[in-house]
Design brief:
By secondary structure, this protein is mostly beta strands. The protein contains 1 helix and 21 strands.
Length: 327
């Protein structure tokens, strides 16, 4: 019986090369909590942020090693019942208690932005080199929105104003950027103030200094609103501290600890810097501030435009922001 033919193997001296497969480039991860109360984002290299939709408050910003850069009170209300004590609350349209004879009169302290439910608008990420050694996209931007139509009740003349705000939070490997685009969508002009109420985490407030505000005039609220022409030295804190500095936005602010730079803050169209620490007595007086000695672990360096009123004409847009870099 003859055997069936065996398949013939053809030898080729030059076999075609395998088609290369492009490496999978890691991308930022964005997730929304099951109860739709917060948005989290992380980079392939490990850095992360978390934003509470209540107030669009950034409540966490961590390094790739998991080190937290923001102070958050352990008693902070994260359920939407009260403004968050810590992180980066947003101040708008008034800073501090509203003046009684002003259109913002009747609003809560620091306005309504930090106690309103914002809408998550989406994300975008940066392009990065598509090489095997690439660690993926270098940044991710989260956008949030708030408009007058989203607010049920505004107990002031502001109920007659129309506005739309886009708040962008961008996480980079070494820094975080927060920026606001505030639009007057109505037919009436209105005045506003705004500020990023940033709580920076430190190891010990007694070792902290803030430079970049030398010779800048300021209002000392801890001294009854005393106006001071300025001081030549870096700011240090050894008691209750509440100063509103008028500072050229081009000046870089550096927060150092034990003379070693820790954070660098650059500003865009934000001429005011508030430096605040409640110290012992005021920390004890705040029911949502904890631990009791938490004042030692934080310093507020708040950039904004609050020294005077900003007038936004009908149809116009105001933009401003900050960048905080870890050093």
């Amino acid at each position: 019986m003859s055997k069936p033919d065996q398949p013939r193997v053809i030898e080729r001296s030059n076999k075609p090369a395998a088609i290369p497969v492009s490496p999978t480039i890691p991308t930022p991860q964005v997730s929304i909590s099951e109860d739709n109360s917060r948005v989290s984002a992380s980079l392939p290299t490990g850095e992360s942020i978390e934003v509470l939709l209540y107030g669009a408050t950034v409540i966490s910003w961590k390094s790739a090693q998991g080190k937290e850069n923001l102070f958050l009170s352990s008693k902070a209300h994260l359920d939407g019942s009260k403004a968050v004590r810590g992180g980066i609350p947003l101040v708008f349209p008034v800073f501090g208690p509203p003046p009684p004879n002003h259109p913002t009169g009747g609003l809560p302290q620091h306005g309504f932005a930090r106690i309103s439910k914002w809408e998550y608008l989406g994300k975008s990420s940066s392009e990065s080199s598509a090489t095997p050694s690439s660690s993926g996209d270098a940044s991710v931007k989260l956008d949030f929105g708030l408009s007058n139509t989203m607010l049920e009740d505004i107990p002031s003349e502001w109920k007659n104003y129309q506005f739309g705000i886009t708040y962008s939070v961008t996480l980079n490997r070494e820094d975080i950027e927060t920026s606001l685009a505030i639009r007057n969508t109505g037919e009436k002009d209105w005045d506003f103030q705004t500020l990023f109420h940033t709580y920076l985490a430190v190891d010990n407030i007694s070792s902290v200094s803030v430079s970049g505000l030398e010779n800048a005039s300021y209002i000392d609220k801890a001294q009854g609103g005393k106006q001071v022409a300025g001081q030549p030295n870096a700011v240090t804190i050894n008691g209750e501290f509440d100063r509103n500095y008028s500072s050229d936005p081009s000046r870089v602010i550096v927060v150092a600890e034990k003379n070693k730079p820790k954070y660098e803050i650059t500003r865009d169209l934000l001429p005011d810097v508030v430096v605040w620490n409640p110290w012992v007595d005021k920390a004890k007086a705040m029911a949502d501030f904890a631990p009791e000695d938490g004042y030692k672990k934080m310093v507020c360096v708040e950039t904004g435009s609050v020294g005077q009123w900003n007038t936004l004409e009908a149809g116009d847009t105001w933009e401003g922001g900050q960048r905080i870099k870890t050093l």
